[in-house]
Automatic annotation (TrEMBL):
SUPFAM superfamilies: WD40 repeat-like
Name of encoding gene: aamp
Ranges occupied by WD repeats: 74-116, 117-158, 224-265, 319-360, 361-399
Acidic residues bias spans: 21-71
Annotated keywords: Repeat, WD repeat
An annotated GO cellular component: cytosol
Organism of derivation: Pundamilia nyererei
Name of this chain's protein: Angio-associated migratory cell protein
Source domain of life: Eukaryota
Keyword Repeat annotated: yes
Lineage: Eukaryota, Metazoa, Chordata, Craniata, Vertebrata
Domain Anaphase-promoting complex subunit 4-like WD40: 290-368
Length: 399
């Protein structure tokens, strides 16, 4: 075989020459590159996003990253977390309860578990410390209440009272007062109280670890003055003279505790549940509260409205809009700032004087179901349906 035959191109089967490319010994010059660029259709190249094999720009990747403003995440729960409280003595411990039928007492600074409260029959929906933080009580939806000694990690008392209302029983586990033993409710009075639209004047026994106490409820008038639906929340002012109640009927009622008379009613027009699983449910009142330093009250609605009312004139001062339904509100003890948590997983701080948003904190991937704050309002702890509890340091320019 000669040299010409050795250098010949061998074709196989149906192969054919599509294009002949000249190979030059010289490198392409600037003019050649410019000519090549003129033949490029940049519009078509920009529409080739489907062929980029999932590549993203750095800005797109950062935009998709979840915002998390928290300083610590407690993730020991294996189900939604329904409640969280700080210990009143030091504000250094938290207790959280959840769908996993457990409550945990843990350190806020590093998330270390100090006590695991087990033995519950259903979701733990309420938990709190005694006034001196030596005891912690946890209650589940089956009605089982357990009391634990934090230092020794031992269960010292338990009682079954019937089904607990998940949103409100937490307020009745401990009777905050001068009794150092605190009081634990032993009957189902609160069930009757919160499953009805009427609060009756009556007395029920609360059992402490050493003795019995009697507490009183206030009469909320029935009929036109009363709520037209089940109660959802209530709050009292700091001197105990007024009570504010909220209901699924979309109205908040102001009650004189001494006389039992309804002295005010508050509602917002229209609105449906926003961000909830059932968008068609009524615009119920989800949380209420009194400001400690000014004659103001706050009412949170399921449509995402936070309404600030003047207590003396009962006039609406501000309407603060949220992206989703509000779950809870909480006033700071020594300022006019009110905080809210909502179904969009955000914690927000509002200035009740101006109605302006002061700060917003995100980090949860599901709705916030409960939150608590320390005395100085420099720290907030949130419980969420994403199975997590988060600790946020609240930084504000005025502090």
């Amino acid at each position: 075989m000669d040299n010409s035959e050795e250098s010949a191109i061998e074709l196989h089967g149906d192969e054919e020459i599509i294009e002949v490319i000249d190979l030059n010994d010289t490198e392409p010059g600037p003019d050649d590159l410019a000519d090549d660029l003129e033949d490029v259709d940049f519009d078509d190249a920009g529409n080739a996003g489907d062929d980029n094999d999932g590549w993203e720009t750095e800005d797109e990747m950062e935009a998709e990253a979840e915002q998390d403003d928290s300083d610590l995440t407690f993730n020991k729960h294996t189900g939604s977390v329904f409640c969280v409280r700080l210990d009143p003595a030091t504000n250094s411990l938290a207790v959280s309860g959840g769908e996993d039928d457990k409550a945990y007492v843990w350190r806020v600074s590093d998330g270390e578990v100090l006590l695991e409260c087990t033995g519950h029959k259903d979701s733990v929906t309420c938990a709190m410390f005694s006034h001196d933080s030596s005891l912690v009580a946890s209650g589940d939806m089956s009605g089982l209440i357990k009391v634990w000694k934090v230092e020794t990690k031992e269960e010292i008392w338990s009682f079954e009272v019937g089904d607990l209302e998940p949103l409100f029983a937490k307020n009745f586990i401990f009777q905050h007062g001068s009794d150092p033993n605190m009081a634990v409710q032993t009957d189902c009075f609160y069930r009757f109280r919160f499953s009805s639209s009427t609060i009756y004047r009556s007395e029920r026994c609360f059992k402490t670890f050493t003795e019995m106490h009697v507490v009183y409820a206030v009469c909320l008038l029935t009929g036109q003055d009363g709520h037209q639906g089940a109660l959802t929340c209530l709050a009292c002012n700091k001197d105990g003279s007024l009570m504010l109640t909220g209901s699924v009927d979309g109205c908040a009622k102001l009650i004189n505790i001494t006389t039992g008379k309804v002295v005010g009613a508050f509602s917002v027009e229209g609105g449906k549940g926003k961000g909830s699983k059932d968008e068609e449910e009524s615009n119920s009142v989800e949380s209420v509260g009194f400001c400690n330093i000014l004659p103001l009250i706050a009412v949170a609605y399921l449509d995402g409205t936070l309404a600030i009312y003047d207590l003396s004139t009962q006039a609406l001062r501000h309407r603060c809009r949220h992206e989703a339904g509000i779950v809870h509100l909480r006033w700071e003890q020594s300022s006019s700032v009110v905080s809210t948590c909502s179904l969009d997983g955000a914690l927000r701080l509002w200035d009740a004087r101006s109605g302006n948003l002061v700060a917003e904190y995100k980090g949860h991937t599901a709705e916030i179901l409960d939150f608590t704050m320390n005395r100085e309002a420099t720290l907030a702890v949130t419980a969420s349906g994403d199975n997590q509890v988060k600790v946020f340091c609240l930084q504000r320019p005025d502090r």
